[in-house]
Amino acid sequence: MTKPPVTISLCMIVKNEEQTLARCLDSVADLMDEIIIVDTGSTDQTKTIAARYTDRLYTFDWNDDFADARNESFDKATCSYILWLDADDVLLEPDRERLRSLKRHLSMDIDAVVMPLHLAEGEQGEPLFTSRRIRLVKRERQYCWAGRLHEDLVIPEGRIVHSDVAVTHRRMEDHTLRNQRILARWISESGKLEGRLLYFYANECFDRKEYAKAAEAFNRLLGEPSGYREDRITACVRLAECYLHRGEPEQQLDSLLRSFRYDVPQADLCCMIGDWFFTRKEWSTAAYWYEKALEQRGVSGLRAVPLPCYSWLPHVRLSHCCANLGKLDASYEHNQKALQYLPEDPHLLDNERKLRSAIQNLSSSARPLK
């Protein structure tokens, strides 16, 4: 029996995205079977640009609720699967090919697909910071969005798979003031500050550099009897950063270790703990935590993490630790492993020369006299 072809509806909500919308659609339009764009009140050329790509253009009366707008866009879809993007997202060419392959081979018994979201890039375009989002869902499952701000797709049940198709986020505008306004209204109408609403409030305080308020909110969140595991891990990370900015190093370390209540040690947490000891020149203890970071094989979960902690950074730190412990061969080995990720890095290349010279000099001085 021939497998029915997978068809995909691209669903987007937009407002005043004239600078980014064409870039986004150019990267994905030819891979879609249907493009649905819901405009939430643009006053620039967004709708004119959108009309060049689709006639499925709709208007939504904005009500400070992103989930409502996204659900409206999903309601318009007619294809077997729905892909969602923001206007400042883009698919790079390798990911276009991966999406093309995914569409060709995706089994119709899959209900949702999780994809990486690259949030920051390095000088060579390499991803530096990434999270994972549920990006593609089967339309007939009628999954819905929840949350006025920082909305999420709610998947109560279903078969979920992970894909290597990455979406690259290239934000051009700062939405901090908008987010603060929506959050303030949400808190006012809710009448209580707890759960995910408390989590969002804590993050907004952190982003405004109000570290005392953020620390208090994160501690309240962690004191609640239940909550999302990954929110709690992120809260521990940000709480540690609050204490760093406040000059409270012992509380900083305690917050990082507190994350182990919610999951096994993850590479970025291990690196942060290693850095705590590294700055105090406690080389053996720092090295222990960087070694633990290397034991973690890839990013797990959906939270945003710094990718260098899962690749080259532990090797760079271990090279320094080993050098300070007099273990020059091990230092050189870790420097070489870091160079596999960053082959043109001038600091690593300089370290390579210095370490090779130091090892040769040590070997020469150790030769017995004739």
From TrEMBL:
InterPro entries hit by this protein: Glyco_trans_2-like, Nucleotide-diphossugar_trans, TPR-like_helical_dom_sf
A molecular function (GO) term: transferase activity
Name assigned to this protein: Glycosyl transferase
Species: Paenibacillus terrae
Keywords on record: Transferase
Coiled coil: none
Glycosyltransferase 2-like domain sequence ranges: 9-114
PANTHER family: GLYCOSYLTRANSFERASE, POLY-BETA-1,6-N-ACETYL-D-GLUCOSAMINE SYNTHASE
Ligase listed as a keyword: no
Keyword Transferase: yes
Lineage: superkingdom: Bacteria
